[in-house]
Write a structure and sequence with these properties.
Elements: E1 2-4, H1 10-20, E2 28-36, E3 40-48, H2 53-74, H3 82-88, E4 95-96, H4 99-114, H5 128-131, E5 135-138, E6 142-145, H6 158-172, E7 178-182, E8 185-189, E9 193-198, E10 207-213, E11 217-221, E12 244-249, H7 252-265, H8 267-274, E13 281-285, E14 291-295
Antiparallel strand pairs: 1-9, 2-3, 3-7, 4-6, 5-6, 7-8, 8-11, 9-10, 11-12, 12-13, 13-14
Helix pairs in contact: 2-6, 6-7, 7-8
């Protein structure tokens, strides 16, 4: 889990922005929080000048509306979603997909192939045959699942996609500095934003590595809250490790998926696959807070 770390005290800055509004001479921060994707607290922070308060509230609300619209289409937990349609009609027929869902599914399949299925949205299938069933695209608007036991779930990439789209919405409104924090997974517009990685297995607030991000994303996979909740899509078995892995990338969609894939692989194997993703950096964190960072250009040389 990645945490936003205050510079002077972000909490006090937020308080100035929301309550006193004007205590910061030139800029202030406005932060809002809503629960999305079932139970994930999603915080939107926007840097503004004092007279932009009302506009910033509208911008943040628009970002949340965009997120909810996407969730309604890509969540396998919503019966009327496009992904639920695919699961319900597996082995039977096709479903019509929005451009967003099509883009996300194609990206998921691409990452799955590049990671030799350590990341695979078919992990939810109840059988080995189902996990190997094909996702077939029919033109630009239709898709189907070939095997009746194939079930797909976008939890390991959908959150990243939603966060990316929220930032894109804010950018379209002229925002130049903002941060979306989705339960510890971060996407920054502008920056720098100081952040830290929570120690695996520790209480919230116990940080290890500190870094900063500008126009980028951080996503972490580990057993922070629910041990064994990450499955190896290749075997269907739970993956339990003592440490965690954080992926930094420009796209939160990519960072989200690769954090899961690399956690499933383990540290050594993750470095072998990093060369397929030259834009990412990997940070492995031990329970005692020690970290190892592998920039793409130095990954092999950094091995102990």
């Amino acid at each position: 889990m990645v945490q936003l770390i205050p510079r002077m005290s972000f909490r006090s800055v937020f308080l100035c922005a929301l309550l006193l509004f004007g205590c910061v001479p030139k800029t202030a921060y406005l932060t809002r929080s809503q629960l999305l994707m079932g139970h994930v607290p999603v915080n939107v922070t926007i840097e503004i000048i004092p007279d932009q308060k009302e506009e910033a509230l509208k911008w943040s609300e628009g970002a949340y509306t965009r997120a909810k619209d996407l969730e309604a289409r890509i969540s396998e937990f919503q019966a009327a979603s496009e992904i639920s349609c695919l699961n319900q009609r597996a082995g039977k027929g096709s479903c019509s997909l929005s451009p967003d869902s099509m883009i996300l599914l194609r990206k998921a399949v691409e990452i799955s192939e590049k990671t030799d299925h350590a990341f695979d949205i078919r992990f939810a299938s109840p059988s080995k045959a189902g996990r190997k069933g094909q996702i077939i695209f029919e033109g630009q608007t239709m898709a189907r699942l070939s095997h009746p036991e194939t079930r797909i779930g976008l939890g390991a990439i959908g959150k990243g996609f939603i966060v990316d789209q929220m930032i894109d919405f804010l950018r379209s409104k002229g925002v130049t500095k903002a941060l979306v924090d989705a339960g510890g997974d971060l996407k920054a517009l502008g920056g720098p934003w100081p952040v830290a990685i929570q120690k695996p297995g520790s209480r919230s607030g116990e940080a290890s590595a500190m870094t900063q991000i500008t126009d980028g994303a951080l996503s972490t996979s580990g057993n922070y809250e629910q041990e064994g909740h990450i499955l190896d899509p290749r075997s269907g078995k739970k993956v339990t490790r003592q440490g965690s892995v954080t992926v930094e990338a420009k796209s939160h969609t990519l960072a989200d998926a690769l954090a899961t894939a690399f956690y499933v692989m383990g540290e050594q194997d993750s470095l072998s696959y990093q060369k397929k993703f030259p834009e990412v950096t990997i940070i492995w964190t031990d329970p005692d807070g020690r970290t190892r960072t592998y920039p793409a250009t130095q990954a092999r040389e950094s091995l102990p």
